[in-house]
Amino acid sequence: MELKISIVTCSDTRDLAQDEAGAALEELIEAQGWTVASHVVVRDDVSEIGDAIVEAADERHANVVLTCGGTGLSMRDVTPEATRAVCERDVPGIAEAIRAYSMTKTRRAMLSRAVCMQRGYTLVINFPGSTKAARESWEAVSDQLEHAAQMTAGGGHAK
Predict the structure, then answer these.
(1) 53, containing H or E segment
(2) CA angle 82, 146, 119 (to 5 degrees)
(3) What's the confidence (pLDDT) of residue 158?
(4) Do 14 and 41 meet the contact criterion of CB atoms below 8 Å apart?
(5) What is each CA distance from 61 to 6, 108, 125, in whole angstroms?
(6) Is 2 left (phi over 0), alpha (psi -120 to 50) or beta?
(7) What is the pLDDT of residue 142?
(8) What is residue 159's predicted lDDT score, i.e. its pLDDT?
(9) Long-range contacts of 16-25 (CB under 8 A, 24+ apart)
């Protein structure tokens, strides 16, 4: 399956040129032969993050939107709230899998508030903002993205 993946980096301190985690995700997506549908950096603001998710899903027709950053305990970390505001269905297993995998790397993974949800036919997954953690999150779930996107688009299980 040809996947179109959008990246939404949530940061008050970085712009696109400084977005190392987003750049790493672009490389990982392209290494799989998939397409980067869009890559933007928005402020840590519920409305801006939500608008970027909607744009990626509804206008760019991304199968998957990876948010990067804003999943921690700081009061500025609002990516899970923004994701919930614009998505309909919770997909808790993916966020749980990322946390479980990340716990094998650092105990601080338990502090993540990241979520995974569906917006229509698009899967939205919250990744942490550090380059190392974003790569680890990718390692945790990338082998399931094609099947998840197929199922989100209404596909059936292989017989």
Answers:
(1) helix 46-54
(2) 25
(3) 61
(4) yes
(5) 9, 34, 15
(6) beta
(7) 98
(8) 53
(9) 16/40, 16/41, 19/68, 20/131, 21/68, 21/69, 21/127, 21/129, 21/130, 21/131, 21/133, 21/134, 22/68, 22/134, 24/131, 24/134, 24/135, 25/66, 25/68, 25/127, 25/134, 25/138
Are the C-beta atoms of residues 153 and 121 closer than 8 Å to each other?
Answer: yes
The number of C-alpha atoms within 13 Å of 138 and in the hemisphere containing its C-beta is 25
pTM of the model: 0.96
Secondary structure of residue 2 in the 3-state scheme: coil
- What is the Cα–Cα distance from 63 to 152, expressed in whole angstroms? 8
**Cβ(121)–Cβ(64) below 8 Å:** no
Residue segments in the chain with a per-residue pLDDT below the cut of 50:
none
